[in-house]
Amino acid sequence: MGKSDADFLQRLHEEALQKQEAFFGNIASRLGRERRLQTAPVRSIKGAPEFWEDVQLSVEQRVELFMSNWQKAGGHVQRLSRMSDVKQFIDNFIATTQARHLIIQDQDELAELRTALKASTDINLTVWNSGAASEGEKDELVAKAAGADIGIVAVEHAVAYTGSLVVTSDPARGRSVSLLPTTLIAVLPLSRLKTKLGEVLRPFDVLPLKERPAGIHFISGPSRSADIENDLTIGVHGPGVVYALIVDEI
Amino acid sequence: MSEHKATSSVKERSKVALNNDFLRNAVKFTTERLKNGKLAAAEEHGNWEEWRERGRQIRLHTIAHLDYYLARFVENARAQGVHVHFAADAADAVRLTMQIAEHKKAKSVVKSKSMVSEELHINHALEQLGVEAVETDLGEYIIQLAGETPSHIIIPAIHKNRYQIAELLSKEAGEELPPDTGILAGFVRRKLREKFLEADIGMTGCNFAIAETGSIVLFENEGNARMVSTVPKTQITFMGMERIIPTLDDLEVMATLLPRSATGQKLTVYMSVISGPQRQTDGDGPEEMHVIILDNGRSLQLGDPQFQELLNCIRCGACLNACPVYRHIGGHAYGGVYSGPIGAVLTPALNKNVAEWDDIANASSLCGACYEACPVKIPLHDMLVYLRRRKVERGSKDPLEQAGMSGFKFLMSNANRVKAFVKLGRIGQKMLVRDGHIKAKIGPLKGWNSYRYAPSLPKQTFRESWKDIEQGLAGTLPELSTDIKARMEQLMAQRTGGGKYHG
Q1: Which CATH architecture has domain A50-249?
Q2: Of B252, B280, B300, which residue is a domain's last?
Q3: pTM, rounded to two decimals
Q4: Does one domain contain both B403 and B287?
Q5: CA of A132: which chain B residue's CA is closest?
Q6: Residues B262 and B316: beta-carbon distance below 8 Å
Q7: CB atoms within 10 A of CB B148
Q8: Chain B residues near residue A221 by CB distance under 8 angstroms
Q9: Are B197 and A131 inside 8 Å of each other by CB?
Q10: In chain A, which residues have their Cβ closer than 8 Å to the Cβ of B255?
């Protein structure tokens, strides 16, 4: 079933508005206020400690740190010069692993790669673009992602300090593509590699509500679990094999 | 939380744990590893104390202005199309959830790990409605199959070994699965993949909610929380009302503190910032998103000078791993949803019934390791003392202990009584002393002497020997500094009752 009936939701909303008064009234009174605080309180501190703001790494240091963290987490990483190298890497990967089903985001950065992959007769390629998709077509895209051997994405950002890739959702960037396939291949344009989390997070704070993507996902390695006797297991739900391909020139 | 009742004492429950060798080994092994991982991660990060202080400041500020920040969150979440609801207690939250599930004619629900949903016992309620509720975190799935509750905030199935797990999963698979971690996890991946794809509703918890963006943030390693918030058409998020931080900028601090304190990772494999349901042309993510904001006893801590800081907790589990008592008795012995030092304080606080849960406040050595470990510096050991104090003040005390205390007060408030009593003791002990020790397990000495011997009372008290000692020391003691001496003399001058009475 899709969305709930509007009148059902409206009824819940009205109930919530009613309860909200008591809820906030209670909080305010326990905090010693007569009414709910309406204006923003003054903040003397916000975000990371001062010393952290001064930490800045050079491009090469960032690459080195990202690669080291990504590998420590169990991921694979390659540094490549241009997109044609990415194409070559993926061809080689497909040939070696006998991958059949691929899904790729409809991002501009990946245009060349898509064209090349489409030409290949050995594989079944799905391109994620839900811009004009019906409900049924959307479901179909998710199903394709779930059955894919490889998902290919270009990341929006990366953070060297935590070894994280950052992907965001929009019609050409499905969340499922980086999540459901067995293997994730992520293209990371070098210029998008930052030093710290804050550099990626802060701009989202000031982004107008309408422009903020519904999903912002930080990915720091293969899916893992230590829930059975603390024995590390890779690929429990998300991709167990993850490649970050750092590309110098895009 | 009326369903929570302390039916047996921590002592009894911990015996169940203590007799289970595997549990103890497993808990020790895991917590040791988590603790060492945390120490390494904290050290590697550098300036850990500064980060901790920053985390504490952010949490203190937010909680002190919770009415403002929570309202901002609600406003911004609604602007993005989220349906926000309020639940005063667990029953309220369950009722709301059931209404939505019923309206959706839901057949199955997939859940990612959420301590709040443990407070609600939501699975039970869903099952009564005929809705299948599947835990999708590997550890939670295992204990769900076993029909148990989590014993650790971060590693819920810490008390099970892989043979027990293989047995549980084999039953589910309908075939014999070997006790091999990879194979067992592979089975769960396949099995739960189907569940994700067919589920009508996804349920998540909420590690943090961002006031200024109306987003919820989830930290996890397996990818199941991403699944739950990506595949099903409807998402219901349970959020403790205190989960708020003001901005995404502040999230950097929490993202630095939480994974390092929980598992020693720099960041969990996935950190997802979810801002409302899918946009019109998005291809995945929930079409409809509900956030249920839960009080359930939390607001009772607000404005309480001794316990308000409890709301700063970010649920990392570091205090469990550091606690010498938790490491011996495991999570189930605490009897509530939350275990370890945080559970010992939080459970009675949330339940409003300090008396009923008082014995878990005693399951602590007050060593302060929990405070040292806490990434937001909650003074848990102090709170445990306050709890014990409140328990006594509310009159829920052991009559024997009470009698003992008044006897002690009677005795100690008069120096002559003490003298007489000690003299009596010296005569009385003659029957019992052997080689300077009392070994008999009688009367008040029974508990003590079961494990060690009590020393006998010396022939002379310190006061009685003082004259001799003073003579021997004559001239060897350094002179008291003049201002201290003056102060002491002043105190002596103010004393009434000839110095024989104190207080």
Answers
A1: 3-Layer(aba) Sandwich (3.40)
A2: B300
A3: 0.85
A4: no
A5: B281
A6: yes
A7: 14
A8: 269
A9: no
A10: 162, 197
